[in-house]
Amino acid sequence: MNQMQCTNVRELLSTYVDSELDPVTSLRVANHLEGCVGCRQEFEQFAQLNRLFKGAAGVFVDIEPTLTGRAKAINDRVRNKILSELAAVSPAHDQDDSLSEEFFPPVIKKTSPATAHPVGIKRWFPPKFLKKLALVAATVVLTTLLGFTGLIYWAHYSGTLMAGTVRTHWVCTQLDHLGLYRTTPEQTQNLLLRYQIQAPDLSAVGLKFQGVHQCKIAKADFAHLVYLDHANQTVSVFYGGQEAIVKLREQAGTVTPQTVFTKQDGNMRVTAVCTANQDHLWMVAGVLTPEQIQIVTNSICLR
Amino acid sequence: MSDAVPVTQPADQVRLGNFESQVFSHTPALLRTAVRMCGNAAEAEDIVQDTLLRAWKYWDRFEPGTNCRAWLFRIMINVIHRRREGLEAVAPHLSMSEPEMTNVLRFESKIEMDENGTAAALAKLPSEYREVLMLVLVEEFSYKEASAMLNIPMGTVMSRLHRARQMMMKFLKRGASQAG
Ligand SMILES: [Zn+2]
Ligand SMILES: [Zn+2]
Asked: What is the ipTM of this complex?
């Protein structure tokens, strides 16, 4: 085997340290290092330099402690920005949520006797029901961050009432995960007073009341009551006054207290039901079984 | 009671969830490298944020199953290079035959490497040397990956690394002798 010159070896040492030399050359360098103190010393320096670049001990000693926290903050900002962008393209898509098709489908499909529903609940399966759900998010995030006073959030939304309800539900759930929309008990109390309502007791279906804030859906004001189920999943109950009823009437034609409007996509369901004298509208959105939805709407209507 | 309707989720929600689960865990590594590359914490955060937003924009082009970390670093290098181009003329290229540097090859019997001086030494390197050190020594990308990210030939990766190491040792040695 040719004896390698020191100058050649030193040219290769950097690559050797990184294990990027081909096996034959690598072996020749190793052989040279066996017998050459000078080159071995340089190799050791290179190896030591490599160690300095690993972990917190060396080159990152100053930034490592705060790295995780700062990275998380960046991730949160990026998530918010993405939600904003998605919301910015929302209006055009909202026009697709044509009510005549989605609210009153010509055929009510029944999949099996087990899923047939008792009185009043209409079910159907719109294919694009939850599409572009995220689109409203930004508006919420932006208004939250920019125009945020107290703990009131306004979800501006230009689509239909039912689709808007699901969107708003999802957006507010995201905000909750970010720790942004939690209200104090006092703020909750004030808002309930302003709307002159009490939070419905939904413990029969395992839902625990968390708090309330204000949201806009289809340009109508709603009180957004937030509940959590046993698995900490959010279920939204929206309460709206005359303005909201008008919205529903615009989209659904005849509105009677006997009619419960329900849309679903997989496990996700949204339901609208108005009070007996037709001056208040309640809407429920979340991952609920048809049975749960029925219990919830019954307990709301009976109030 | 089974529900016969398949569970579908809104496309954007799925896409965002997918993105978050694959991308967000790499943010600390991106930030670490960005801080060392630009030397300014605030700008580094800006660079990483910009990188993630670009990654989101091109998320459809990311091939599932391929190396997401490498893909993200490639985007970040692009972000950094673009910013750099807008800022100043590139640092003067030092040639490999520069006599000063060959002296590094002749070490004294023992050189103390000052750990605390490593960051300072790194900061003195021209950016194109600093970035290749970060990618290979810290992030442990292969020469091939680094070459793709930096859009330079493998041979250039090798020579830059070699030079970068020599310079680092020189700076570290100087720092240590000043300190002692
Ligand atoms: Zn030798
Ligand atoms: Zn809300």
From this structure: 0.77
